[in-house]
Design brief:
This protein has 29 helices and 27 strands. It has a five-stranded antiparallel sheet.
Length: 870
């Protein structure tokens, strides 16, 4: 273990010995601090000097022999920045910093290890040197370089969100002194001219070097060491911002562009495509559109046939922050050997070519979906939560599961909605919702503002928050573009303990769960977000498969954690061959392939049919009451016992639904067991009764059993049909709470219109608008035609156009039009609310019938056993 040096004088001296950060301890003039002295003020905090918040911290520094900032004889140029970096600071009693630690490593000790995630720290060699090792093909390591004094390393894990690409260790027989610097210091250190320049140079140098390595590996033997060096000298590493137009159609091809990461839209037939909101109409006007991701190369057409006047056949626009390698075409033409290597190798692993794969006949829905998935960042998530809204029964069990595991739900069923074809070229569509849950982005924006480094990339590549160092400032929540981070009280009020009666009542209650109270506190908050259920009983050490409570407790399999580049077919083929396998995304696409789910269905059908066939065969051979093989068993006894076992299996679903915090198998499999066990038990017990209903109790039992089956079948049909109808007419997925609030707003608006209208207009609205558009027939029209809202409004206005034209003044026509729109919207909201209610309507009679059946069955069993024994 390295030895930490805690004396601040030595830390300051170490900073001063490193040229790239020595500006931090340089002195300013006697009249001012010279440089930027805003400390953490850019983050929305007030400096401790201004607040006088140092307290004991300042006193402690004075005892260190003048090494502290407060006891220096003259001001530092960056005094406030140095203060928080080297000493730390109190913000309203909460510690921020220090951001640097000084360590002395012994001979042979590793500072960083290849493959580890180090997204929150980088290092600077203060004294001594470090050897650099990388893994070789034989499974060992080989030394590839040395880091001398004053060199920084490890920044790429922070800047690029990638694992460590090498192991750095102290040479044998020596020691090394190293500064460890955490992520929040980067924002402050970038003010330093030398450090900012060095960081930019390092980033571009690493990006260039890493890209060359990727190219060499993909190209095989086409690039020897000398040729690769020439390629590096001819290329430059560039970073494009979102919206940058790389080139326009018809311009001369002056460069070859290899995409390291990011996304580019190519358009043929238009100069510059309209923004994402109008992509479909723009696509229809163009001759073709496609999207290209990392690993693709643009401009190869400028290298073929010696054509010095090659022109771009399309306009290329950057959709997201994109890193690329640019190679000057004239330089390549002056080096025929390099030109041939680039042309042959890049064309082999790049999906882009002069054909451009731009074809207006391609599915416009897939192109529009790809545009949205790329521009919103969904495809660059490393772990994406998706909900297939055609399967979602709006039960809220995913949010409840998250709440049960974490104490407060981190899953909000609102977010980014994508309508996409189920398969390319298919006429059927899928409605996918990416809810407001952490995407664990490759380039997370939430990490940039944290003043303590509490949020960062953890050991497995996921983004998480260290609750011990979070000060509740809310910067990460503000920075997150997906609203995936919430602020909650650090000390939640103690929960009222439930009595056994309360727990029993909750098991049979049909009332919707009470949502948690809104957070109104503004002090002592804590940032929380999805942590993939790490450090919970769902994922004990040694577990072979990672489990997520939300996914485990979805009864229909609507919700899944996926690798977005595999899940979305429309972008899966847009990444070049080099990078198709280079992803640390996790998750599997159960919407495409879930073998165990299919096995449950096949097995359930086969077992049900076999049991039914065996029962019918036994009845035909032995009768219901004939003894089997000289034993006391009869077909009636066997069907009764097996049916009872089936009912016990059915009831196990209710017990499984209460298990949120531990592994119990995905709920969707338990639901299938519930359905098939219920069907099998129903068939056997119906045959068990024979042609006679028996006495009053037995008859009541059979009727209650029939009611259980009928309500269950109705619920199954509702689960299959209602979500699909709902998604086809609602557009953006809406919570029932949102729909009810919207309905109240529309009713209030109609009442206001009525107050503003004269008697004649009120009568016209009542007679022609309310009677027409609030009718049962218009409600059915919502379900049968499933028109989108714009078409529905247009047709509605057309139906009452004559009445609108009969109005003489402009204000009356305006109020009449507003009444038509509000009424139609109100009926659309009603139609969706009724579907939400339908999904739960069957539950009450099903549960009541089941409870009655169980009571009567218990009486029946006691009765049968009593008479059998007597």
């Amino acid at each position: 273990m390295p030895r930490q040096v805690k004396h601040h004088t030595e830390i300051l001296e170490a900073i001063g010995r490193v040229p790239i950060i020595s500006e931090l301890v340089e002195r300013g003039d006697a009249h001012g601090h010279g440089g930027d002295t805003d400390g953490e003020n850019g983050n929305g905090h007030t400096s401790a000097h201004a607040e006088g918040a140092h307290g004991p911290e300042s006193e402690g520094r004075g005892g260190e022999g003048g090494g502290g900032v407060a006891n220096q004889t003259g001001p530092f140029k960056y005094e406030l920045d140095l203060d928080v970096i080297a000493y730390g600071r109190n913000y309203n009693g909460k510690k921020v910093g220090p951001y640097v630690k000084l360590f002395i490593y012994e001979p042979g000790e590793e500072v960083i290890r290849q493959g580890d995630w180090g997204g929150n720290t980088f290092y600077v060699v203060v004294e001594g040197s470090l050897d650099v090792y990388v893994a070789d093909d034989a499974g060992g390591t080989k030394k590839v370089g040395e880091l001398p004094q004053g060199t920084s390393f490890g920044e790429m894990s922070i800047l690029a969100g990638v694992p460590r690409n090498a192991t750095c260790k102290v040479p044998d027989g020596r020691t090394a002194t190293v500064l460890e610097i955490t992520r929040p210091a980067l924002r402050l250190l970038r003010k330093l001219h030398r450090f900012g320049s060095a960081l930019d140079t390092t980033y571009r140098k690493h990006g260039l070097g890493r890209t060359l390595v990727d190219v060499q590996q993909a190209a095989g033997d086409r690039f020897d060491k000398d040729l690769l060096k020439q390629l590096g000298e001819a290329a430059r590493f560039v970073v494009y911002g979102k919206g940058h137009v790389m080139h326009e159609e018809g311009d001369a091809v002056e460069k070859v562009v290899f995409l390291k990461n990011g996304w580019v839209r190519r358009v043929r037939g238009m100069k510059v495509l309209a923004d994402a909101a109008e992509v479909v109409s723009a696509i229809e006007k163009s001759e073709g559109v496609d999207f290209l991701g990392a690993g693709n190369c643009l401009g190869l057409e400028g290298l073929g046939g010696g054509d010095a006047n090659a022109r771009w056949g399309y306009t290329a626009t950057v959709l997201t922050r994109t890193e690329a390698l640019e190679i000057d075409v004239d330089t390549l033409r002056n080096n025929p050997r390099l030109l041939a290597a680039v042309r042959d190798s890049f064309s082999a692993f790049s999906l882009a070519d002069d054909d451009v794969k731009i074809d207006r006949r391609e599915d416009l829905r897939a192109l529009a979906a790809a545009e949205k998935e790329i521009t919103t960042g969904l495809v660059d998530a490393t772990n994406l939560l998706v909900m297939d809204m055609d399967l979602c029964v709006r039960c809220g069990n995913c949010s409840m599961a998250c709440h049960k595991v974490h104490g407060r739900s981190r899953l909000l069923r609102r977010g980014i909605h994508v309508v996409r074809p189920t398969r390319l070229g298919s006429s059927s569509t899928q409605h996918v919702l990416a809810p407001s849950v952490c995407l664990h982005c490759q380039d997370p924006e939430c990490l940039t503002g944290c003043p303590t480094g509490a949020i960062g990339r953890m050991s497995d590549g996921q983004i998480d928050i260290d609750t011990k160092t979070c000060i509740g400032c809310g910067d990460c929540a503000v920075q997150c573009p997906y609203s995936a981070i919430s602020m909650i009280p650090r000390k939640a009020p103690a929960a009222v303990p439930q009595t056994w009666k309360d727990r029993a009542r909750s098991w049979i209650s049909l009332a919707p769960p009470t949502p948690p109270a809104e957070v109104t506190e503004t002090e002592d908050l804590l940032a929380v977000k999805c942590n993939l259920c790490n450090n919970t009983p769902l994922n004990p050490k040694g577990a072979k498969r990672h489990a997520y409570s939300c996914e485990e407790n979805c009864p229909t399999g609507a919700l899944a954690r996926v690798n977005p580049r595999e899940y979305f077919d429309e972008v899966r083929g847009r990444v070049g061959l080099i990078f198709q396998d280079q992803t640390h995304a996790i998750g599997r696409n159960i919407h495409r392939r879930d073998p165990l789910y299919k096995l449950w269905n096949v097995g359930g059908i086969i077992v049900t049919l076999l049991l039914a066939a065996a029962t019918v065969w036994g009845m035909m051979r032995y009768g219901l009451d004939g003894r089997l093989g000289g034993t006391w068993l009869t077909v009636r006894w066997l069907t009764g016992i097996v049916g009872l076992v089936g009912i016990a299996a059915v009831m196990s679903y209710s017990a499984r639904k209460q298990v949120y915090r531990r592994r119990a198998g995905p709920l969707r499999y338990w639901l299938l067991l519930h359905v098939y066990a219920g069907v099998a038990a129903g068939i056997l017990l119906l045959l068990h009764g024979g042609t006679s209903t028996g006495g009053l109790l037995t008859t009541a039992l059979m009727l209650s059993f029939d009611l259980v089956i009928l309500t269950g079948l109705f619920g199954t049909a509702a689960y299959i049909i209602a979500p699909r109808v709902m998604t086809s007419i609602e557009g953006e997925p809406l919570l029932v709470e949102d729909l009810r609030a919207r309905r109240d707003e529309l009713r209030t608006q109609l009442a206001t219109i009525g107050q503003q209208s004269g008697p004649d207009l009120r009568d016209l609205v009542k007679r022609e608008v309310r009677r027409r558009f609030l009718s049962f027939g218009f409600l059915l029209r919502q379900y049968l035609r499933r028109e989108n809202l714009d078409d529905l409004l247009r047709h509605a206005r057309k139906e009452v156009q004559g009445q609108a034209d009969s109005l003489s003044d402009t204000d009356s026509r305006r109020l009449f039009d507003e009444a038509v729109e509000a009424t139609v919207l109100l009926r659309r909201a009603d139609s969706l609310i009724y579907l939400h209610q339908l999904l739960k309507l069957w539950l009450a009679p099903h549960v009541v019938a089941t409870a009655l059946m169980l009571v009567l069955m218990l009486v029946h069993i006691i009765q049968v056993v009593f008479f059998a024994v007597r």
